[in-house]
Each structure stands twice: as C-alpha cells, then as structure tokens.
Design a protein that fits this description.
40% helix; Aldehyde Dehydrogenase, Chain A, domain 1; 2 domains; Aldehyde Dehydrogenase, Chain A, domain 2; seven-stranded parallel β-sheet; alpha/beta
C-alpha cells in the first residue's frame, strides 16, 4: 500500500484482536446461515438508507482522506479510486439495494439424482462462513463486500487501506446502524479498527476462524497475501487486459471501443492496457490519433511508432504493465494467430476482447483465449459485477479454482450434499 498519509499506531496484540473479531464473526455467520431471505434483504435496505442518511458525514470523512492522500503524493488513478461525491455515494447505496433484490443463493439446489438403491442425493448452496477481505483505496468495497457477504449468509471481516481509513469507518458505521436497526448481528460486518500491518498478518493466520481471504489491490498486496496466508485465498490479480482489432473490424466501432476501453476510467481493473492491431486492419493511425486526442500517452512497437510522432517507443516491460493511468501500449500483429500468441504470453487472465465483424474469428477468440472474461465487440470496461447483473462484486478472480470472473453472491457460497434414504445399508 502506497499511502502514508495517516499515522499508524502499533497494535499491542494483533493476534488477540483478530481472534476476538473472528470468534464474533463466526457466531454471527452461524446465525446468518439460517436467516430468511426477506430479513437479509430488509437489513440491506436499512443499510442503504443509513448510507444516504449519513451522506454528509461520509463525504466529510472522504475529503479528509483525499487531502491526506494528495499530500502523500498518491497517483491520479489512486485518487480517482479513493474519491467520493454525491453521485458515487448514491451509487454505493443503490448497489447495496440492488444486492437486496437479487436471488438468494443460500439453499439453492444445484442438482439432484436418485441412486439405483433408492437414495436421493442433492447438492445445495451454503455460505462459506467467515470471509476476510483485504483491499486498497476504494471505499465502495466496504459497502459492496458487506452487502454481498450478508446476502450470501457470510460474516465478513474487512481490512481497508490506510489511504481510505476515514471513509471506510464512516461507511462501516452506516452499515452497522442498518444491521442494528434490522435486528441482525452487527458482528456480521466488522472493520479491523487499526491500520497496523501486523493485524493483516494475524488475519492471514486465522485458521479455524476465517474460511477464505480475498485480496483486492495491487501486486504487492496480493503477493503478500498469497505468501503468508494460512487459509484459502481467492486471488484477484492484475488487469493486464488486451483489445485486439482484427482485420475485419469496423474502423468506427474500433475507434470508439479503443478509446472507451482505455480512457473511460483508467484506474479500474477492467481498463485496457494493450491494444493489438492486425496488420490487415485498415485504419491503425485513426486508433492512435483518437487515443492521443483523448489525452492518452501511446507507447508502440516500431511499426506503431512509425505511424505518428506522438507515439513513444514501448519497452519490453510495457507489455506486462498494468498502468492504471492514461497510458496504453500498442503493437501490430499478424492476424488472430499473432494476437493469441501475444495474449498468451502477456495476459493476466483477467479480461481480453476482440473487435471484428467476422463471426468465425470472434468465436475462435472467445474459445481460445483463456481468461476469466473474454469479449467480442464490447469495451473491457464492462468487466464489472454490476454490469454483469450481479449487483456488486468482491473482485474479479483470475484463477481457476472455486470462482472465476466477477465474484458475487454465488461465488461466496460453497455446497453440501444432502442424502435422503429409507434405511439403505451398504453391502
């Protein structure tokens, strides 16, 4: 985490702090696992109401964080992630209400079968239990994680970054008030009250109290979690996302998608970081000119650099960089095969997209690119749980186990087998 804007006070006994929080979270999770859908939904609507009611206090807390972050020299992208205003805070409350309206996954039957001996088997979704979430910068994660955790029957222990400490505390206070108003356990949503890094270590070691850890942040955070965790980790890695402009792409569509995928919000994990242009694409200069006009720094290979004096040379490191800024790397490739080879070598398996009017090329790209999200003729900025109709997301998982892509309600459940017999004994 980059911000040193707040003085971090040491924790006398971080293990004892996390053990107490974990024990209370486990008790809350046991109760939440059997709370009816209507009660969970009512609690989330009450929490959304409290977010709106306390808007002035939350925005004042965010202004303090923003001032400290600017003084600490945080990047423009990090400041954009941190910033709240009336519109963004309203969107956070709306997202909490949207989760309340989603189908409850708990108890949902996945499949069923009857064995030859008459035993009836079914698999049903159940909560994970206690979910630890460690994240940076974005105060909206505090509300999103709480809402998704509650609706999926889980208790959550949240540890936000020091740069958003005041915002996170104000948002958490509103959520806790909504839970208390609804009669659900306030311990279902806990925020680690200190910023000491030792508390993170204690959370990562909390076997038996925490069932899964979800990190949401930069490389250093995810690497630390993966190295130190003694509980399972659901990883959200870099968004080194590609937009491939095929030779059969519509030029106007390609320009619009390239600018939006890169520049709509440069600091989100769904932003495109590399654009690959088929040598058969008819208008590569139009792509470069549109990006430059939008305020983007373009770094290109030799062919792209030869197109315009506004293109700087790309280094070997650029193809593996998540800029989270108004910078893009651009390379020319030989058709789909060249694009697939580049993506295979450099993608972080987050989100990759193709722009083409050739249905065959599109289907091959969708089939052969091994990423959590693969798109055709759509901006990578749609890589978002809300845009996928999931209400909100904890993050986008780039691994293969348990959940992949936007992790929302279903991703926060596991399942158990139910076996109903009539006295069968095994021969």
């Amino acid at each position: 985490m980059t911000a040193k804007a707040h003085t971090l006070s040491p924790v006398p006994d971080p293990d004892a702090l996390i053990a107490d929080m974990g024990a209370r979270a486990r008790a809350a999770a046991k109760r939440l696992a059997v709370v009816p859908t209507a009660e969970k939904a009512a609690a989330l609507r009450a929490a959304a109401g409290q977010l709106r009611l306390r808007a002035d206090a939350i925005l004042d807390a965010n202004r303090r964080d923003m001032a400290a972050a600017k003084a600490a020299g945080l990047s423009a992208a990090m400041l954009d992630r941190l910033r709240l205003d009336d519109t963004r805070l309203g969107g956070i409350a709306d997202a909490v209400e949207a989760v309340a309206a989603l189908p409850d996954p708990v108890g949902m039957e996945i499949d069923r079968a009857v064995r030859p001996n008459g035993m009836a088997l079914s698999r049903v979704r159940v909560p994970l239990g206690v979910v630890g979430i460690i994240y940076e910068s974005r105060p909206n994660v505090t509300a999103d994680a709480a809402a998704l955790g509650l609706m999926s029957g889980n208790a959550v222990i949240l540890r936000g970054g020091s740069e958003a400490v005041n915002s996170n505390r104000a948002i958490h206070a509103a959520l806790a008030a909504g839970l208390a108003e609804s009669g659900l356990p306030v311990d279902a949503v806990q925020l680690v009250p200190v910023q000491d890094r030792a508390a993170v270590g204690a959370l990562l070691r909390a076997q038996g109290l925490v069932d899964i850890i979800i990190p949401r942040g930069g490389k250093s955070l995810v690497a630390r979690v993966q190295d130190e965790a003694r509980v399972p980790v659901l990883a959200h890695l870099d968004g080194i996302n590609h937009l491939y402009l095929d030779g059969a792409a519509d030029p106007a569509k390609a320009v619009a998608l390239a600018v939006n995928a890169k520049m709509r919000r440069t600091g989100v994990c769904g932003a495109t970081e590399t654009i690959l242009i088929d040598r058969a694409f008819p208008a590569p200069l139009a792509i470069v000119d549109a990006l430059v006009a939008a305020g983007c720094e373009v770094r290109g290979d030799k062919e792209v650099a030869a197109l315009s004096p506004h293109v700087g040379p790309a280094s070997a490191n650029d193809w593996d960089c998540e800029y989270l800024d108004a910078i893009v790397s651009v390379a020319m490739v030989d058709g789909l095969a060249g694009a697939l080879a580049h993506i295979d070598a450099h993608s972080s398996k987050h989100t990759d997209a193709v722009v083409t009017e050739d249905a065959g090329i599109a289907e091959r790209f969708l089939s052969e690119v091994d990423s959590a999200i693969v798109m055709h003729n759509a901006s990578t900025q749609f890589a978002d749980g809300g845009e996928f109709g999931l209400g909100a997301e904890i993050g986008i998982a780039t691994g293969r186990l348990h959940a992949r892509g936007p992790v929302a309600l279903e991703g926060l459940t596991t399942y158990k087998w139910l076996v109903r017999g009539t006295g069968q004994v095994r021969p």
